[in-house]
Amino acid sequence: MNQNVGSMDKRARTLVGAVAGAASIATLAGAAPLPALAAPVLGVVALLMLATAAMNTCPVYSLLGVDTCPADAGRSV
Q1: Looking at per-residue confidence, does 14 or 62 come out higher?
Q2: What are the Cα distances from residue 45, in Å, to 4, 35, 49, 59?
Q3: Cβ distance 9 to 68 under 8 Å?
Q4: In a 10 Å sphere around its CB, with 0-12 CB exposed, 13-18 middle and 19+ buried, how is residue 21 labelled?
Q5: Is it the case that residue 49 has pLDDT exceeding 90?
Q6: With a threshold of 0.70, does the pTM exceed it?
Q7: Nearest to 9 by CA among 62, 64, 70
Q8: Are 40 and 24 in contact (CB under 8 A)?
Q9: Which of 14, 18, 24, 77 has the smallest set of CB atoms within 10 Å of its CB?
Q10: Domain boundaries, the chain
């Protein structure tokens, strides 16, 4: 897959993934005043964001034709 996630986008995805993961764990522990259904939803969001940041590839970006990588970045084909 082609890389389509740039460095700033990667940082934002990592931050959102970390916050969502922490909120999911806090909800499971009863420390956050969120409904019980929020924990698995936040957990999935966290995993998706962290995985797309780690792989530098977003399938939704591919479908929409979005690319936040610089043009001169080394891309895999």
Answers
A1: 14
A2: 19, 16, 6, 14
A3: yes
A4: middle
A5: yes
A6: yes
A7: 70
A8: yes
A9: 77
A10: 18-55
Assigned token pair, 37: 């259904």
Residue 77 is predicted with a pLDDT of 46
Question: CA-CA distance, 73 to 47, in Å (whole number)?
Answer: 25
Q: With cut-offs at 50, 70 and 90, classify the pLDDT of residue 32.
A: confident
What are residue 71's phi and psi, to 5 degrees? -65, -30
The burial of 43, by beta-carbon neighbours within 10 Å (0-12 exposed, 13-18 middle, 19 or more buried), is given as: middle
Rounded to the nearest angstrom, the gap between the alpha carbon of residue 11 and the centroid of all alpha carbons in its chain is: 9
